[in-house]
């Protein structure tokens, strides 16, 4: 009898433990099923939403000026696109100088990377230049590809930016093309060229400290008369008069 009672007690205890574990297993099973099913937020994220197309139309404002140059002659001595020139070159166009309202070459070079044009602050008498840390005041200033040799500290050049068509700055050694110069680079001042299209421009400026300045730029076709064996020949050539 005692053995039967012990056996039934053990069976009842096992059944009680199994019954206690059944709700826990059901809860875990329900959590697993709920985790497998996507939520409403996940279902909304998977839905693709196609928005209507938005068309934007605009026209280029040519009055803003052209600050980007496509070609340059300073890197190869030929009119070569800048993207095909294997050298770091910056070009300051005439439109950019007009927008900055520059009065000196140092002001024109203010935003050129690698160039320090106002080494000693504002100095209108001459142009001091440092390119990539190297001094280029005496050997790094050129005009139309020709060096403007600076004989000493007390004598220098102060080119007028109004007479420049553009300013080109090739960085790095360029002695193969320009001879002995600064290893940091050079500054090439490109003068304005005559054009066949007639134009007239006159400016007057006034500033502080009794500063007054007048500028005149006139250009167009000129007709030269020539007599050859009794026949009159007209030769058309472009001219340009620049007074600052």
Would you mind describing this structure in some detail?
This protein has helices at 2-36, 40-46, 94-100, 105-108, 175-178, and strands at residues 71-72, 80-81, 88-93, 115-116, 130-131, 134-135, 141-143, 146-147, 164-171, 187-191, 199-207, 211-228, 231-243. The chain has a five-stranded mixed β-sheet with strand order 3-9-10-7-8. Strands 4-5-6 form a three-stranded antiparallel β-sheet, with no helix packed on it. The protein has a three-stranded antiparallel β-sheet with strand order 11-12-13, with no helix packed on it. It has five helices and 13 strands.
Name its key features.
5 helices; alpha+beta; 244 residues; five-stranded mixed beta sheet; 13 strands; extended
